[in-house]
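Hey Z.,

So I finally got round to the nicotinamide-adenine-dinucleotide thing we talked about over coffee. Here's the setup:
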Amino acid sequence: MVADVEVSGGHWIGGERVASAATFDDVSPIDEAVIARISRGGATEAHAAVSAAAASSPAWASTPPTERARLLHRVADIVEDRLERLAIVETIDNGALLRSHLRGVMPRVAHNFRFFADYLVNDLHHPDFETRGHHNHVSWDPSGVAVLITPWNAPLMLATWKVAPALAAGCTVVLKPAEWTPLTASLLADITKEAGIPDGVFNVVQGLGEEVGDALTGDPRVSRISFTGSVPTARLIARSAAANLTPCSFELGGKSPFIVFADADMDSAVANAVEQYDNAGQVCLAGVRLLVEDAVLDEFVERFLARAAAVRQGDPRDLATDVGPQISREHFERVDGFVRRAVTAGAEALLGGGPNEQLGGLYYRPTLLAGAAPGAEILTDEVFGPVLTVQSFSTEDEAIAMANGTEFGLAGVLFTGDRARAERVSAQLVAGTMWVNCFFVRDLRAPFGGSRHSGVGREGGTWSFDFYCDVKNTCTNVDRWTP
Ligand code: NAD
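And the result:
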């Protein structure tokens, strides 16, 4: 039981709970207490889950789209019914704010299912076209078994961002959630069963990535691999998938720029900049490099610090809290290591700069570093914690060069009052998503993904169906029908 919610620590394979002899501890970041013992899967469980998914694939692929859509809406209904339970379990498991889970994240989980169900039925079509008396028709054929591997920073939201389109597309699924946050994937398995998703169509394998990963990603029966996580893990998966040429979609890390020109609405720029501490900085898309035009640097920093002073750090179950803990002790130390090395190398902490001594545990103070030398690791490597840097620029070209000066290309955030400049700069930034005078506005019809080391491919709307399906063109000579 976690917060009075019954959560199974077993795998979910072929419509049944399966336990492994070995287990691992699931620890809450709120107080580092063990909250569950989870089955520690390996090659045997991975093989069994892919077998269940492969066996159920033909029937699910031939289930009419309207029926698949009906079942996915049923999943969304149950998610909405259980919203509070899912929210509190997720908060205890990953330390993100209960307020966000209640208001934004869990509603988005339901929306993931509804959106892809509706897209399948209403929007997934390409107009037929003629070529010299031949008729062309494009169809999206289910590809088979999709293996979905997901991270801990937004566990159920990011898992269902893959599960929903894969199931809508007619694929069967094996989900491998992150070992730091296994619980809501387990609750989702119960929900799919209750919704009437046939046994074997949705499977969950729990375990440590390196122990279960290869067996899942190297299985020749797997038709697609969608992964959200870090660059080093993506490299391992790509290597494993290469043996069977299994197509992969990768959503990876970022080091996104947040550019503020002197002509920007400063209230809005400052408010959005402070929001980069959301989820205790554990957001792939966060604009962590504040690049501010030198004419307004002092004003911006002063106003940023004033606003950031009002950010409340504490227990994420408290609805008044703005910033919670880091996910794990290991991650906390990693974040602290980045900050210490940056300061040793000459950067100055204008805000924070270390653990929150009052709260103890895994609470790291929202931090703003200035004066890092060009090329310093704090300006190039992903920290994935509540750590922002601020630098100034004097020209548009310099801002663009600085913004593009990492190996990543996930997102870009730009504040300016000049429309022509916004268009010029956006066009030159390497990024999968640009936000101009806003941040984090998401529409599931839009493509989502990263350039360079931030990812391979795009998901969202048609792009998700393009990935999970074998897209087929049928070209017919319409003069050859028997009368
Ligand atoms: P991670 O790569 O350590 O782990 C992600 C998942 O991969 C986990 O489920 C893990 O068990 C699994 N895994 C680990 N080794 C594996 C292997 N050898 N084979 C198969 N699976 C394996 O990443 P993380 O620490 O959980 O997540 C943080 C990273 O995710 C950050 O870099 C962040 O930027 C990125 N992220 C990206 C997006 C995006 O949409 N671009 C969203 C969220 C997080």
